[in-house]
């Protein structure tokens, strides 16, 4: 009986209190398990943050129905795969600013000049899609 009591006693050189993070004799390691879970959550969280930051230009362009949405998407993908921040900055700039419409005023001027010159204007063709000849031969009539 006395031998059984002796086997349950701790070694005389062992401290009285062992911290909980020290690996147990049964092989369980609480600190390693906690750090492994923390590391996995941290890596996934950083990946989500990185991909969220890279999608900012595309979300900006999509929200404002930007006409250059595809260009913004291509620049964001180039920035993602090449790790070149210049592409990402360019995507943010393109998504953030609307380029002015230079074609509509020129088409309006052309239609007005065509009316003044007495040329027929094809109203069935949407604005900007009417084919214009490079030059018009004037045969002296009209």
Total number of strands? 0
| Discrete helix count | 6
Radius of gyration over C-alpha positions, nearest whole angstrom: 37 Å
- Report how far apart the termini are: 130 Å
* Alpha-beta classification: mainly alpha
Order of helices and strands: HHHHHH
- Beta-strand proportion: under 5%
The 3D shape can be described as: rod-shaped
Please state the average pLDDT score.
Answer: 79
Range of helix content: 55-70%
Largest sheet: none
Low-pLDDT parts are: none
Describe this structure in words.
- This protein has 142 residues and is mainly α.
- It is built from 6 helices and no strands.
- Helix content is 57%, strand content 0%.
- Helix 3 (56-63) runs antiparallel to helix 4 (69-82), helix 3 (56-63) packs parallel to helix 5 (85-96) and helix 4 (69-82) packs antiparallel against helix 5.
- The model has no long low-confidence stretch (mean pLDDT 79).
């Amino acid at each position: 009986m006395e031998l059984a009591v002796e086997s349950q006693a701790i070694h005389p050189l062992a401290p009285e209190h062992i911290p909980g993070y020290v690996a147990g004799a049964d092989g369980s390691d609480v600190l390693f398990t906690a750090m492994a879970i923390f590391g996995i959550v941290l890596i996934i969280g950083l990946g989500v943050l990185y991909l969220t930051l890279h999608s900012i230009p595309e979300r900006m362009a999509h929200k404002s129905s930007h006409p250059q949405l595809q260009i913004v998407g291509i620049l964001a993908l180039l920035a993602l795969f090449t790790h070149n921040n210049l592409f990402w900055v360019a995507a943010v700039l393109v998504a953030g600013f609307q380029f002015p419409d230079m074609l509509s005023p020129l088409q309006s001027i052309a239609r007005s000049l065509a009316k003044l010159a007495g040329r027929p204007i094809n109203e069935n063709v949407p604005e900007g899609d009417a084919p214009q000849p490079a030059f018009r031969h004037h045969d002296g009539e009209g």
